[in-house]
Design brief:
Length: 196
């Protein structure tokens, strides 16, 4: 299958998810700055999730600049990634409205982890199974391992120390790792979020 058509399909899903998330944000209960401030976690959760979707789109775009053909396995893995992405608006709203509760934070962080894992597998198999283009190293890069380490530490702190915010902070740090550490590992070309 030509990768261009599939790339357009995934782009449309990401655009819809970005739009759906804004519809989940409630209006302030009072028409003043205090009403806005009371929704600060909602806005922060929305911003973080929006940046995740933007990162997925950006790295998906970079990947498909290199990929010419895909097969059914790549489509299947991308459909799993798409399924995980569609959960993001729901868990963003749940976590934002219950910022001090551990279970919504764990679910929100879990969506981040599953998204990362699914993307790594999708990118790996898309490059490996594209027989028309030469791809360099297909291994995960150091930034991908760093990303998983950040998640692991955040979850351990949250669960063992009962600090729900640890997962949210690990998601923020993970987003930074996905997008800004590639230059430090620029001698490697892996399938993590931070590909050059």
């Amino acid at each position: 299958m030509d990768s261009g058509r599939f790339e357009t399909f995934v782009d449309a899903i990401l655009a819809i998810m970005m739009t759906v998330m804004i519809l989940k944000i409630p209006q302030p209960s009072t028409l003043n700055l205090e009403g806005l401030w009371n929704l600060k976690m909602v806005y922060l959760s929305y911003f973080l999730s929006f940046m995740v979707l933007l990162s997925i789109w950006n790295h998906h775009r970079k990947l498909f600049e290199e990929i010419k053909e895909i097969d059914n396995l790549v489509i299947f893995i991308y459909m799993f990634l798409t399924f995980i992405i569609t959960l993001l608006p729901y868990f963003t709203a749940w976590c934002a409205l219950n910022p001090h509760e551990l279970v919504p934070e764990i679910c929100y962080g879990g969506v981040f982890i599953l998204t990362n894992i699914a993307y790594v597998f999708a990118a790996y198999f898309a490059m490996k199974r594209d027989k028309f283009t030469e791809h360099p190293d297909l291994a995960m890069d150091k930034s991908t391992y760093l990303n998983f380490t950040v998640f692991f530490i955040g979850f351990i702190l949250a669960i063992l120390c009962n600090i729900p915010y640890a997962i949210f902070i690990s998601c923020i740090l993970s987003l930074i790792v996905w997008n800004f550490t590639a230059k430090f590992f620029s001698n490697e070309k892996g399938v993590g979020w931070c590909g050059n």
